[in-house]
Amino acid sequence: MKRLLLAIFALSSIANAQEPTSSSTTTAPTTEIQAPVSAPTTTSIEEEDEDDESREAAVSTSTTNGNVEKAYPKFEFTSYGYIVFGQRETFKTVQNLTPITRREMDLAEIAFEGEYILSDSSKIEFEIEIEHGGVGTVVEFDPFEEFGEFEQEIEKGGEVVLPELYYKKTWKKTNTALKVGKFPLFIALGSVQTKPHMYASILASDLEARMIPLNWTETGVQVEQKFSDFTARLGVVSGLNSEFFRTYNWIGGGYQRHFETTNADDLATLASIEWGSVAKGKGFALSYYAGNTTGNRYKVDKLKEDAEVTLWTLMGGYKFGGFGFSGEVIEGTLENSNLVSAANATLGGLAKPKAFAPLGHKARLESLQIYYDFASIRLTPFLKWEHVNTFEEVEGNINKNPRYDVTRNSGGLMWFFDQGAFLKAQYATEVTELDGLPETYQANIAFGFDIDSFK
Where does the secretion signal sit in this chain (predicted)? Predict the structure, then answer.
């Protein structure tokens, strides 16, 4: 791990040495909000992806008495959010086989994204998310407990969060970029396609959260290198905590958002190679994640053996005229999953997994979405198939649980009925491999806005 960190900083140092020194004059710092449209004269910052490129093209130069001065720092702002109305079939508890129908309304999310552009080659990006209406104590009903149970939690993660805050430096001569801070992991569609206009369904993936952390971001350092249409990434980030791995979301609960600080005794390595732009639906990528999780446990004496998580992801999409498709395959392995399950079963208090300690050794997720974009009326109907199995293989005395071998089929549409305002409708059916458990349905309508859709 130390060698990998040294390699990352060595690459950035070499790129820095090759970058010519700027002779531009900088004015006193100013804070101004610019609309995401091009000014008459622009200086483009090296793109993180095509969204960044379009925003950064708005950085303008000002002319005073014939001398060109760059007004830095500058501030840019964008936002998105949506409300969901839904009806679904669920079960009273995990022991019930007869579904019941429930209706829900949810102010799901509103996000504010900002960029402090420090120069023509550096910036600070951040994002603030308000989820499910704001901060406070929340009462939840857990139907998967043996007899059903009400729980009261003060939610830090998932209510008001700062999922992204990082510094990015770009060396244009070598097409190299360095990120330091908390940034999205390039590991799944849910953490790459982060804006509602990038996908027709209500969520980029309906089943990712049953296997890995949803909208996964971590703190660390990452180097990006562009080669023509290819982008390579190599990073070291904070790892997961296996104390919070659970049957119903495999390693998803290990995302360390429950506490004020993140345990970093075990770090993770992240690498990817991308062609085109997966975020824009015109590219493909292969990603790799690996990191031990034992050292990040709070109860250090419960587990001594390694519990490394390994993920391989193939994801992407493309468009041919109005027709397009997107999809992903995620293969995951949890080392010594039976020992992790046994150690977690002895935890107490809020960390007690109850009946959800058993974990699969291997997990797999697959998804495919096809759609057609009627650009003239901004209407995009779609069909989607997803499958996840977090008990694909097991170790030791752990038994496979067919309830978590899930197939979900859905269809719907996305319609931008006004400037930046959208409506999404989606109907889905879900079935598991558990004998006797009937197929259930879910119908949702989402209203929202996405300022980035103007671009």
Answer: 1-17
Give pTM, 2 decimals.
Answer: 0.83
What the block records as the tokens of 153 is 């939690």
Tell whether the torsion through CA atoms of 157, 48, 418 and 196 is positive or negative.
negative
Cβ within 8 Å of residue 58, ≥6 positions away: 34, 35, 36, 37, 38, 39, 42, 76
3-state secondary structure of 295: helix
On whether residue 99 sits in a domain, the answer given is yes
- How many domains does the chain divide into? 1
Any idea how long the chain is?
Answer: 455
Please give the DSSP secondary-structure letter assigned to residue 431: E
Give residue-wise pLDDT tens across range 364-417: 999 999 999 999 999 999 999 999 999 999 999 999 999 999 999 999 999 999
**Residue at 128 is within a domain:** yes
Q: How confident is the model at residue 32 (pLDDT cuts 50, 70, 90)?
A: very low
Buried b (16+ CB within 10 A) or exposed e, 250-259: bbbbbbbbbe
Q: How far is CA 61 from CA 65, 69, 300, in A?
A: 13, 6, 55
Considering the domain boundaries, does residue 11 fall inside one?
A: no
Give the number of other Cβ atoms within 10 Å of residue 289's Cβ: 27
- Give the integer Cα–Cα distance in Å for 22 and 26: 10
Q: Which domain holds residue 118?
A: 71-454
Rg (CA), the chain: 23
Question: Measuring CA to CA, which residue among 424, 380, 387 is closest to residue 407?
Answer: 387
- Residue 67 β-bridge partners: 64
Those residues whose C-beta lies under 8 Å from the C-beta of residue 420, and which sit 6 or more positions away, are: 449, 450, 451, 453, 454
What amino acid is encoded at 393 in this protein? E
Q: Is residue 39 part of a domain?
A: no
Residue 310, beta-bridge partner list: 290, 333
Domain CATH for 169? 2.40.160.10
